[in-house]
Amino acid sequence: MNSMLIPLVLTLGAQPGDDWNKAETAHLANIKQVTSGFVRAGEGYFSPDGKKIIFQAEEKDTGNPFYQIFVMDLETGKFTRVSPGNGRTTCGYFHPNGKRVLFASSHGDPDTKKHQAAEIAQRVEDTKKGVRRRYSWDFDPQMKIYEADLDGGNIKCLTPDAKVYTAEGSYSADGTKIVYSAGNSGDVNLFIMNADGTDAKQITKGTKCYNGGPFLSPDGTKVIFRADRKEKDRLQLHVINVDGTGEKAITTDDKWVYWAPFWYKDGKHIIYTAADHSNELARPNYDLFWMNLETGKTTRITHAPGQDVLPVFSPEYKKVLWTSSRDGRSPTQLYIADFTPPKDE
Question: Top-level CATH class of 8-339?
Answer without folding.
Answer: mainly beta
